[in-house]
Amino acid sequence: MAQSIKLHPRRCCITGEGMDSGYLINDGEMYIKYESDMIKHIREVEKKGNPDYDVLVSEGSLTDDFLLHDYYEHEYYYYTDWECPDDIQFVEVDGVFYEEGEEEFDKYYTLESEKVTPNDGLILTATYIDYLNKDKNFKQDRIEFESYDDAVKWAKENFEKFNPDMINYKLKTN
């Protein structure tokens, strides 16, 4: 019998670790769990595409903060949390990962309506979107919804670019 069962929405492309939050690159092309790995990745991308990289680094103009901000502003990545049962793509059983679609995944993970039942169960308690509200001088704001579909509808009406990973969930242990 399994000693440890962990549910993971995503898996870090750098470390191989499961992740519940982290950096989403190019709408799911790559996932990175830690900021230090994200900075290293951005530096590698910048070095490949910028012939002046070494000069700019030596001048001190390509700082980690500058690169993180610049790549974020150009929509290369964003940081997100995955909290919805529908987001689960990996089950880690005693340190071994199983991906959604594999028989072992289905053995340890079942979704029944809004309830996840790996071993002790999780229940969805809220669906929400955190965003920077332009009407409040770009301060972080939260809007809660009755359902996922309501959140999708609102986001599509209010954001130029919408990605389902913008929708967050609160879960509680059964």
Chain-averaged pLDDT:
83
Question: In angstroms, what is the radius of gyration?
Answer: 19 Å
Q: Could you give the distance between the termini?
A: 21 Å
Number of E-state strands: 13
Order of helices and strands: EEEEEHHHEEEHEEEEHE
Number of helices: 5
Largest sheet: 5 strands, antiparallel
Query: Overall 3D geometry?
Result: flat
Class inferred from helices and paired strands: alpha+beta
Beta-strand content estimate: 25-35%
- Low-pLDDT stretches: 112-122
The share of residues in helices is 25-40%
What brief labels describe this structure?
single chain; 174 residues
What is the compact description of this entry?
With 174 residues, the chain is α+β, with helices and mostly antiparallel strands.
Describe the protein.
- With 174 residues, the protein is an alpha+beta fold.
- Helices cover 28% and strands 34% of the residues.
- The chain is built from five helices and 13 strands.
- The strands form four sheets. Strands 9, 10, 11, 12 and 13 form a five-stranded antiparallel β-sheet that branches. Strands 1-7-8 form a three-stranded antiparallel β-sheet.
- Helix 1 crosses helix 3 (64-73).
- It is flat and about 55 Å long.
- The two termini are 21 Å apart.
